[in-house]
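Friendly challenge for the regulars: who can give me the structure tokens for this chain first? No prize, just bragging rights.
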Amino acid sequence: MRDILRAEARRFANTVIWSWDGWVAAWATEKTLRQWTVVNVLSATLAFSIEISVAERGLILALGLLVLAAELMNTGLEEVVDYISKADDPRAKKAKDCGSAAVALTAIAGGVAWVVILIG
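First reply, four minutes later:
Bragging rights claimed.
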């Protein structure tokens, strides 16, 4: 049992390290990730500055994190597409555009949540 727990702890530690490495790599090269992070900090600051319910605050914070997750997935998708080929191909464009659309829809969801919460 102890060996199993040790192995799981090692796997978890590796997951944390790899996730951090991914964040650092994306942060260094992706201006949009940095921009969305600033938007998230501002959004979180506002969410803690105004009187809203705990559930509303949780929704705002969670949607902000989902925007960052979508941006990271989009970055990964773009990296893979560029690695496979630099040639202009309509499938590569479609893949990149769909990734971008996923980020946009996630951000719109966050915006909709803010509007609904603020309008009541």
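The chain is about 90% helix and 0% strand. Helices lie at 2-29, 31-49, 54-84, 90-119. Your move, everyone else.
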